Amino acid sequence: MSARQPMVEVRGARKSFGAVEVLRGIDLSVERGQIVAIIGPSGSGKSTLLRSINHLETLNGGEVWLDGVQVNQNLHGQAFERHINKVRQQMGMVFQHFNLFPHLTVLENITMGPVILKGMPKTDAKALAHSLLSKVGLAEKIDAYPSRLSGGQKQRVAIARALAMQPKVMLFDEATSALDPELVDEVNTVMKQLAAEHMTMLIVTHEMRFAGEVADRVLFMDGGVVVEEGPPAEIFRTPQKERTRTFLKKYLSA
Amino acid sequence: MQGLDFSVVVPYWDLLLTGAWWTAVLTVSAGILSFVFGILFAVAVLYAPAILAYPVRAFMWVFMGTPLLLQLFLIYFGLVQVGIDIPALAAGIIGLGLHFAVYNADVIRAGIVAVDTGQSEGARSIGFGKWQALHYVVIPQAIRNTAPPIGGNLIALLKESSIVSVIGIAELVHSAQLAISETFRPFEFYITAAALYYILNLILEAALHRFERHVEVSR
Fold first, then answer.
1. Residue B86: inside a domain
2. A187 within 8 A of A150, measured Cβ to Cβ
3. Running along chain A, 254 residues long, what does each successive block of 10 average in pLDDT?
């Protein structure tokens, strides 16, 4: 696989929920190690786009590719199930509401994937969990249950859980939107750290400042289309489209 | 008029304890059966293809809508007619187990539906399949969340297990009746039997309480 090949590619993505068209032909290409922030008003389709990339939403049209492999292949039944499970192992996803497993400890949350899906020996998985938790600053919480953690801590564990599968790309779906303002930074710090390690990332966010700091490219979506995209400096300082300007003005004045 | 004299119970104490033992055996075996099949029925009703889901649903309606006594008679006396001869104890365990499995299935089905969809999405996003997500993430949480009503069903099962005396299983009520037929002292023996049921219930409740406390930590 050539280094030129995009890590994530979306071509002509279309998606409707009933009569509502939420994605109306989206094209997106993310290079290896690139960080793309997707911004836009609620209902613009940005979360749906992100969720379509690992097939939590099924597209009505268009293609999604991960590192040269088509994600939404035309397979059926068990064959598709096997395919998608393999593909998802290579994509980490971080959710707005963490989605940690409350009946399992932090350690079990993190090691479950590697142990069950990759057959990693438990001792190796525990060592991996420990190093990932150290990285997100939560080594001492390894035996805690999620209910004993703050929102920020939960999200850092969720990031560690996704990283444990050693994914090729990380998808962040409003990872800090459910957090108290004072807990946002600890999660952003971890994400910046990943950025520094050249992890390929797609970040759906409402935080313009963070998007500006961390992203190589910003996508502004509205009404199911990409209105404008470019380097953060261009999008935030000299947006070309009126719609982008209106949106950003509202955000910057808020 | 005869006064109460519990000394008549003493010679039959071993018989009653043996009866209580078999009541415990019935409760535990039928309880496990009702738990396992409760999960299987719930999953079948929710996720199995129609060809399996509909028969299971029909089976559940029948088992909920007819008396346990009749079900026991059908399993023990009825099936012999079609060449299936099940020993009394096994028939009792199967009848009680399936009867309460239907109630557990109802509770567990609701418990599964109540688990946030984010949980299975979390599992799927890591690469777990649909059934793995159910097995490792959704069902364990559904069971935890429905532990109190499942425990209630188990306590009901313990008490209802007395009904299998009618197919000749020597459980507690059956033993008491045997003693009464020899002594003509129903009051003393029924009261003693009731006390033994109560003690079994206390043991069961203590076990359930421990389980619920254990589960409480991981909420």
1. yes
2. no
3. 80 95 96 96 95 96 96 94 97 97 97 97 97 96 96 97 98 95 94 96 95 96 96 94 92 68
